[in-house]
Design goal:
This protein is mostly beta strands. It is 0% helix and 44% strand. The strands form three sheets. It has a six-stranded antiparallel beta sheet, with no helix packed on it. Strands 6-7-8-9-13 form a five-stranded antiparallel beta sheet, with no helix packed on it.
């Protein structure tokens, strides 16, 4: 990260991007072990994460996942035209982190929003915010934007 990011009481200088639609701060979670999403909070890994569209996505079948700094000092991760493994419908969405702890998630195209988890979860699952999980809550529509604040008042 180009800055230290405040996330639920901890400061982070790096983030790991998972192809299945989330990024984490405490550690990287790789491979198919994290293809099946769960609702949050959940003590089972992954934790310490931003779940933009946590689902079984398959960039090996198309699309791409990219990240980099934004012109205005943020850090962005984009999943572009990444199909779902089950339905093969393309998904395009983006997470932008700001040094203030603000998290913006932009959805351009969402293939199967009712099978994903959208939200945030702290490293120990003691703090979380869930917008949607497997058809409950408010799944994202295309196009739309969601904004979260992950910095605690003491940060």
């Amino acid at each position: 990260l180009p800055f230290t990011f405040p996330f639920y009481g901890r400061w982070h200088g790096q983030a790991w991007v998972n192809a299945n639609g989330f990024l984490s701060f405490e550690r990287g979670y790789s491979g198919g072990d994290y293809a099946t999403n769960t609702c949050v909070p959940n003590l089972i890994s992954p934790n310490g994460a931003v779940y933009a569209l946590w689902d079984d996505l398959n960039p090996g079948q198309g699309g791409r996942v990219a990240f980099g700094n934004t012109a205005d000092g943020g850090f962005a991760v984009e999943w572009r035209d990444v199909p779902g493994k089950v339905n093969a419908v393309a998904n395009t969405f983006q997470v932008i982190l700001r040094s203030s702890g603000q998290i913006t998630i932009n959805y351009r195209q969402v293939g199967a929003p009712n099978s994903a988890t959208i939200g945030l979860e702290s490293w120990d699952a003691s703090l979380s915010w869930q917008d949607a999980c497997n058809g409950t809550g408010t799944p994202p529509v295309s196009p739309s934007t969601r904004v979260f604040q992950a910095a605690l008042p003491s940060q």
